[in-house]
Amino acid sequence: MLPPGASELATKIISELEVFVFNRDIRDFFSAFYQEDFLVKWPLLDVVSDNALETYLSTTWHCDGPMKGLLKCFLYLNPVSEHGCNTLIIDEVRTRKLQSVNALPLELERRHTDISAFLQTLGLPETPIEFDLCAGDLLIFAPHKLAHRCLPPRAGKMRYTVCFSVFPESAFKCQIS
């Protein structure tokens, strides 16, 4: 959470970093991935503090709601090695199996910080995918297809990221017949 009055600074940071993130190579990547133009929506300067288990909704395993073509892009502003607040991801095959046994509920109060028992019961590997991200690294994934959670930072540490939601342009076109 940002301190009160920080929204102007956050807006300035986001607008300056958006130009850096969506350089020609990244724009070409998204255009090729979607096979059409894309839109960047709802940029957010995200500050995760060491009390994240009590204050931050994404510390439990979940999939985002099914928004057609959504990719999340997290630009890490400080390295995971500094704060330990990594984004853990489960591959699509294991995610589908976890969904089939209701291990990834949409309701916040029913979500889990530990899904190892579900994975064991399903006979699946328990180790999530994680990256040793450095400042300036970009994590891109499909949050409606891949289970994920944010680990809370170590005591006294904070994670700073800018999150961008990227969609194919067609996701926002109304079709009138």
Topology:
Elements: H1 7-21, H2 24-34, E1 38-48, H3 52-55, E2 71-76, H4 80-83, E3 87-89, H5 92-100, H6 116-121, E4 138-141, E5 148-150, E6 159-168
The CATH topology name reads: Jelly Rolls
The first-level CATH class name: Mainly Beta
Mean pLDDT: 92
Shape: globular
**Radius of gyration of CA atoms, rounded to a whole number:** 17 Å
Structural class: alpha+beta
Estimate percent helicity: 25-40%
| SSE pattern, N- to C-terminal | HHEHEHEHHEEE
Per DSSP, the total helix count is: 6
Count of all domains: 1
The CATH superfamily turns out to be q2cbj1_9rhob like domain
Q: Please indicate the percent range of residues in DSSP E strands (runs of 2 or more).
A: 15-25%
| Quantity of strands, as a count | 6
Oligomerization state: single chain
Strand order of the largest sheet: 1-6-2-4
Unreliably modeled segments: none
The biggest beta sheet reads: 4 strands, antiparallel
